[in-house]
Each structure stands twice: as C-alpha cells, then as structure tokens.
Design a protein that fits this description.
flat; 3 helices
C-alpha cells in the first residue's frame, strides 16, 4: 500500500543520506565546491524522507531495512569496481 511504499522512500533516503555523509568525510576540506554539492544533495535526501514521513510512511521492519542496506552495499561495490 501507499504507507509501505512511502516507508521504502524514507529508508532509501536515509541510506542515501548516510552514503553521502561518507563521501563528505572523504572530501578534502578545501574542496568547497564539491562539499557544497554533496551537502545540498544530503539536505535534499533529508527533506524527501521528512516529506514521506509526513505523508504517512510506515516504518519498515528491521530485517527489511537490513536487506535494503545489504543490497545498496552490493550495488555501490559493483559500481565502484566497474
């Protein structure tokens, strides 16, 4: 249903936000333009999650969140190596 779909949006945005935070940690402090872009992307993800929550998102069970995180790790690892 709609609330579960929105729950997937919330979890996806949270995981993308964490991924972007890890990029921010690796960017040089003097690379202001890249840091500004990543910061804006992170802010957008936070806003998307908040909007989905306000629209009635249902929290996903922890096993589903874990599966999503594992799938994301596989995708980012493959993308990095390709």
């Amino acid at each position: 249903g709609r609330q579960v779909s929105l729950g997937f949006v919330v979890e996806t945005e949270r995981q993308v936000e964490a991924h972007l935070a890890s990029h921010m940690d690796r960017l040089p402090a003097q690379d202001h333009s890249s840091r500004a872009i990543v910061a804006q992307m992170k802010d957008d993800e936070i806003r998307h999650a908040r909007e989905a929550q306000h629209a009635g998102a249902t929290a996903l069970p922890a096993p589903v969140q874990g599966l999503m995180k594992a799938a994301a790790k596989v995708m980012t690892t493959v993308a990095h190596r390709v």
